[in-house]
């Protein structure tokens, strides 16, 4: 998670947000009744906050990265963003009726985080985990993306980024959550090549590769941008960031 804090401003500006349907699905699990208090663990620069505003009256972001947290504080002045982690949110028992973790759960000690979430969620409260996987460009430019990943970035990709997500099984095994569902949500973005390369630059694996090549980083990114645009035949890319969602209900109460 420290890797993202190093590129906090870039992370805030280029990362795609989550589609409205994610929050529609969460609200439906609550009988289409707005939540009183949501907690977004690993809240980063506030990418989930935009959607949570649609379904919750109050939002608390929990984020260990100081620079990422500052980005969120400056952007969303009506909500609080505190220092903490999935394993130790520092929040009181039975604090929230909705807990969300977006594209961050696999970076945490998931066993400890599940118990921490169970502690701070209210009886029968909702847990929503959602993440997008490695992006797919919906044109010939995807071959360029795959080639660069295999040749340059793969060795920096944490195994947690490529393994099948078994978080639903961990939730079931814990006995702390019930009504566990897992399903996809479509999430296609139309992005300029520059913004998409900015997204890649914000990832843990590409940023580590850029650190390795040092002074050659900007030239590498320029060549990648040109290759993507040439293969695509245009500057705007349709990129699939489809969401994998897991919804569950606290077994307390």
Give an overview of the whole structure.
- By secondary structure, this protein is of the alpha/beta class.
- It has one domain (2-250): Rossmann fold (3-Layer(aba) Sandwich), CATH 3.40.50.150.
- 42% of the residues lie in helices and 26% in strands.
- The chain has helices at 2-6, 8-14, 20-28, 49-52, 66-75, 110-120, 141-153, 159-162, 167-174, 193-202, 204-213, 217-232, and strands spanning 35-41, 56-62, 80-82, 96-102, 121-132, 136-137, 177-185, 188-192, 236-240, 243-250.
- The protein has a 7-stranded mixed sheet, sandwiched between helices. Strands 6-9-8 form a 3-stranded antiparallel sheet.
- β2 (56-62), α5 (66-75) and β3 form a beta-alpha-beta unit.
- α7 (141-153) runs antiparallel to α12 (217-232).
- It starts with a helix and ends with a strand.
- Residues 1-12 have low confidence and may be disordered.
Helix/strand layout:
Blueprint lengths: L1 H5 L1 H7 L5 H9 L6 E7 L7 H4 L3 E7 L3 H10 L4 E3 L13 E7 L7 H11 E12 L3 E2 L3 H13 L5 H4 L4 H8 L2 E9 L2 E5 H10 L1 H10 L3 H16 L3 E5 L2 E8 L3
Helix pairs in contact: 2-5, 2-10, 6-9, 7-12, 10-12
